[in-house]
Amino acid sequence: MTGEQVYYDAYMNELNVLKSRDKALEALRKERIKDHEWVIIDHIAEMSNGLVPLEEEALQSLPVRLKICQRNLQKQQDRQEA
C-alpha cells in the first residue's frame, strides 16, 4: 500500500464507472446457468457488495495511517541513533 491517489481513483473508477463485475454478471444472465449455480453466484455478489464500504474506508484512511507509520518509524530510528 502506497497511499497514492492513482490507486484510489482506479478503484473508484472500477466501482462507479467501469463496473466490470456488473457487466460479467449481465453476461452470465444470458447463459444457461442452473438455479443452484445462481444461488452461489448471487451469494458471492452479495459478499462482494458487503466489502465495498470496508474497502472504501481502508482506502480513505490509508494516507493518515501511512503518516502515523512514518512518524513511528522515525521515532524508532531516532531512538536507535541516540
Plain-language structure description:
By secondary structure, this protein is mainly α. It has 3 helices and no strands. It has helices spanning 5-18, 20-29, 35-81. The model has no long low-confidence stretch (mean pLDDT 90).
State the shape.
elongated
Cα(first) to Cα(last) distance is 30 Å
The low-confidence parts are none
Round the Cα radius of gyration to an integer and report it. Answer: 20 Å
Whole-number average pLDDT? 90
Number of helices: 3
Tell me about the largest β-sheet: none
Summing up helix and strand content along with how strands pair, one would put the structural category as mainly alpha
| Fraction of helical residues | over 70%
Q: Count of DSSP E strands?
A: 0
**Beta-sheet strand percentage?**
under 5%
The gist of it:
With 82 residues, this protein is mainly alpha-helical. The protein is 87% helix and 0% strand.
Task: Give keywords.
82 residues, mainly alpha, 0% strand, elongated
Q: What secondary-structure arrangement, pairings included, does this model have?
A:
Blueprint: H1 5-18, H2 20-29, H3 35-81
